[in-house]
Design goal:
Blueprint: H1 6-9, H2 15-26, E1 29-30, H3 42-52, H4 66-80, E2 90-93, H5 95-107, E3 113-118, H6 123-130, E4 134-139, H7 149-157, E5 160-166, H8 178-190, E6 194-198, E7 224-229, E8 242-245, H9 248-262, H10 267-277, H11 281-304, E9 308-310, E10 317-321, H12 330-341, E11 343-344, E12 346-347, E13 359-363, H13 368-378, H14 381-384
Parallel strand pairs: 1-11, 3-4, 3-5, 5-6, 6-7
Antiparallel strand pairs: 2-8, 7-8, 9-10, 10-13, 12-13
Helix pairs in contact: 2-12, 3-10, 4-10, 5-6, 5-9, 7-8, 11-13
Bound molecules: pyridoxal-5'-phosphate (PLP).
Length: 388
C-alpha cells in the first residue's frame, strides 16, 4: 500500500483524551479532560426543546445563522469593547477547535512559521501541521509562566507570520497583563504579523486579574483573528459551537475555509444558544463566582494535601508540581495516580515543547462533591504513590 500522509504520521493520539480512558478504566475521579459535570443553564435547555418543533432542521447559512451571529456580535462588542459587524466579521464554527483550525489555515501557506507560547493547548501543534506551517515555541517559564520579550521577538525575527495567543491560558492558568499584551502587540505591529487569539475562557478570569482582548488594543484590530467558544461559557462542550471575529477581508477567507471544512455548525443548536448569548451581566458574574469558589475549594484542598502548585489567574486548570516523586515520566506518574490514588490528571509534558516533566494538570470544572471526592483521595497521595 502507498504510504498515508506524512503530515498525519506525526500525530499521536490526544493524551488528554487518553487520560479520560485511563480514568474510566481505574474508576478514578476524572480531572483530566476539561469539561463540566454540571448542567448547562436551564433557559438554554428549555429553548432547545422548543427548537425541536420549529423550522431549524436544515443547513443554516454556512458562516452562521443570522440570529446567532447578531446575538454573538452584540455580546462580544460589549465585552471586547469594539464594534463587531455580524454581517461581515463573524463566523460561527464547530467549536473553538474548528475556529482555530480555520484561522491558521486562512493565515498560513505551507512553510510559514507560527509562534506558539509553550506550554500550549495541544491542538495548536496539529493546527499548524495540518496547515503545512511550522511552529516556533516561545517558553512561558514556570512557576509564574512569564515570557522573555526578546525570545518572543526572536520568533518574529526568525520569520513567524502569526502568533497563537491563548488568554486565559490552558494549561497554565495565566492571564496576560495589559503590559504583556502591549509588548506582544508592539512586536506584532513591528513585524507586520497576525495574532490569532484563543479566548475560550474569556469569562473565567479571577479577580483582580482582567481580561484584555488583543483586538481592542490600538493597531491590533486589523491584524487579530479572535477565536472563541460557547463550550465553556454555557457548559455545552458537546454542542460544538465556536466562532471567529476578524476584519471583513480576513473573515471572507475564513468563511470559505469553514464552508469546505464543515459547511456549518448545527442549526438547531445555533438557534437554542441565542438565549444564552442574550444573557445579561448577572449571568457572567454568577459564572465567575461559581468558578472562583471551585478554584478556591480545589486549591485549598491541594494545599492541605501538601502539594505545590501555581494558583491559576484564569481558566479552570491548575498545574501541580510532582518533583518530589522523582519520576522520569510524568505520564507514568499519571497512570499510577489514576490506579493507586484514583484521580485522573494530564501529564504536563503533553503541553510543553521544552523538556518539562515535573508538572501535572488537574481541572476543576466539576461539581463540588466531585472535587471533594478527588481531594479526599489526594490527601493520601504520599502513602499511595511511591517515590523513585
Ligand atoms: C484553550 C482551549 N481552546 C479550545 C478548546 C476547544 O474548545 P471547543 O470545545 O469550543 O472546541 C479548549 C477545550 O478544552 C481549550 O481548552
Amino acid at each position: 500500500m502507498r504510504a498515508l500522509s506524512e503530515r498525519t504520521s506525526r500525530f499521536t493520539d490526544s493524551v488528554i483524551r487518553r487520560m479520560t480512558r485511563v480514568s474510566n478504566k481505574y474508576g478514578a475521579v476524572n480531572l483530566s479532560q476539561g469539561f463540566p459535570d454540571f448542567e448547562p443553564p436551564r433557559e438554554i435547555l428549555e429553548r432547545l426543546k422548543e427548537v425541536a418543533d420549529e423550522d431549524y432542521h436544515q443547513y443554516s447559512i454556512t458562516w452562521g445563522a443570522q440570529n446567532t451571529r447578531e446575538a454573538l456580535a452584540a455580546k462580544e462588542s460589549r465585552f471586547m469593547g469594539i464594534d463587531i459587524d455580524p454581517e461581515k466579521e463573524v463566523v460561527i464554527t464547530c467549536g473553538g477547535t474548528e475556529a482555530m483550525m480555520a484561522a491558521v489555515m486562512t493565515v498560513c501557506n505551507p512553510g510559514d512559521k507560527v509562534a506558539i507560547f509553550s506550554p500550549f493547548y495541544e491542538n495548536y501543534g496539529a493546527d499548524t501541521i495540518l496547515s503545512g506551517a511550522q511552529p516556533i515555541y516561545v517558553p512561558l517559564i514556570p512557576p509564574e509562566f512569564n515570557f522573555d520579550a526578546n525570545v518572543l521577538e526572536q520568533a518574529f525575527k526568525d520569520g513567524a507570520k502569526a502568533l497563537i495567543l491563548c488568554n486565559p491560558s490552558n494549561p497554565s492558568g495565566k492571564v496576560f497583563t495589559l503590559e504583556e499584551m502591549q509588548i506582544i502587540a508592539d512586536i506584532a505591529i513591528k513585524y507586520d504579523a497576525y495574532v490569532i487569539t484563543d479566548e475560550v475562557y474569556e469569562h473565567i478570569v479571577y479577580k483582580p486579574n482582567k481580561m484584555i482582548y488583543m483586538a481592542s488594543l490600538p493597531g491590533m484590530r486589523e491584524r487579530t483573528i479572535s477565536t472563541g467558544s460557547l463550550s465553556k461559557t454555557y457548559s455545552i462542550t458537546g454542542w460544538r459551537l465556536g466562532y471567529t471575529i476578524a476584519p471583513a477581508e480576513i473573515t471572507d477567507r475564513i468563511r470559505k475555509v469553514h464552508d469546505f471544512l464543515t459547511v456549518g455548525a448545527a442549526a438547531p443548536l445555533q438557534e437554542a444558544v441565542v438565549t444564552g448569548l442574550r444573557f445579561g451581566q448577572d449571568y457572567y458574574d454568577a459564572l465567575l463566582d461559581k468558578y472562583t469558589h471551585k478554584r478556591d475549594l480545589f486549591c485549598d484542598g491541594l494545599r492541605s494535601a501538601g502539594l505545590n502548585f501555581h494558583k491559576p489567574e484564569g481558566a479552570y486548570y491548575v498545574m501541580v508540581d510532582i518533583s518530589e516523586w522523582n519520576y522520569d515520566s510524568d505520564l507514568d506518574f499519571c497512570y499510577n495516580l489514576a490506579e493507586k490514588v484514583g484521580v485522573g490528571a494530564v501529564p504536563g509534558s503533553s503541553f510543553f515543547h521544552e523538556n518539562v516533566n515535573n508538572l501535572i494538570r488537574f481541572h476543576f470544572a466539576k461539581k463540588d462533591e466531585t472535587l471533594r471526592e478527588a481531594l479526599s483521595r489526594l490527601q493520601d497521595i504520599r502513602k499511595k504513590m511511591e517515590r523513585r
